[in-house]
Amino acid sequence: MAITGKDINKAKELLTAGELVAIPTETVYGLSGNALNLTSVTRIFEVKNRPRFDPLIVHVSDIGAAAMYVENVPELAHKLVARFWPGPLTLLLKRKPIIPDLVTSGLPTVGIRCPNHPLTQSLLRQLPFPIAAPSANPFGYVSPTTPEHVAEQLGDKIPYILDGGACQVGIESTIIGFDSGLPIVYRLGGLTIEAIESVVGKVYANGHSTSNPVAPGQLQQHYSPSTKIVVGNIEELLLKHANEEVAVLSFQKSYPVKHQEILSLTGDLDEAAQHLFAAMRTLDRLSVSLILAEQVPNHGLGRAINDRLQRAAAR
Ligand code: TXA
Ligand code: MG
User: Fold this and answer.
1) What is the pTM of this model?
2) Which sign, positive or negative, has the C-alpha torsion 239, 240, 242, 245?
């Protein structure tokens, strides 16, 4: 079983030896390994049971480190980095040959991100290599936002979980790529589109696809608990499913049901994002037949929350 602790040196030793370590970030926990070591990267895919066509994000300590791994960086990418790193923003940039094919699933771009968490920042600064880290959950399941979530599902497969407490943002990074220098959103996430547009102007959408290996992050069904989720008007859904054992995942309101998770009593979207995945996990453990969820206001982090709810419901 994995040991959970705050020992950066131990994490450093294990990563240097090619082993995998779960790391905290401000978004979700990552399953990390040396991004330049093929054995470590292969092990990441195995532990997550992740298809090889789904590329990994490479994590670096700062802009200077990123420059060792990417080139032809568009002007708008520089602006985003200057404003939002470290933070919940991943950029898809042309990779230098030092980044292995396996990391990018053969794509010419690499997802690169500088996470904003003191433990992981400190770890990255001490490592002479970048770390590849997908979310630390089995492929297709909800991302982990606490060390306990990681231990539950991957504890028997990795030696160490670096304990950085509960994730502050709670939802994966926003992914932005570029086409002829113009920004395109590949995944809604922990940095709002409003914030990004305030720096680079209009950001273009990239439609969902279940078969497009250019952006497997857009797989419709992803981030799903095992229990079926239905998204809609809770009152109507409660009537419709009156004879079933259900649980409710609500934004702010309380409903007359036995099992429910409320994302934010004050209607705060940031707090709702922070609680979303833990709430899904809690309801998933109840062994009810159905989780009834409602959309949240569609602005700020609400857009990313609604995106994750829709994907959890797609099956
Ligand atoms: O917040 C996060 O981004 C977390 C933490 C641990 O940093 N990581 C994370 O990684 O969510 P992962 O692997 O669970 O999701 C990354 C998504 C994948 O769906 C992958 O398809 C997409 O990013 N991706 C990575 N590199 C890409 C590339 N070059 N082109 C298109 N999509 C890419
Ligand atoms: Mg993931």
Assistant:
1) 0.96
2) negative
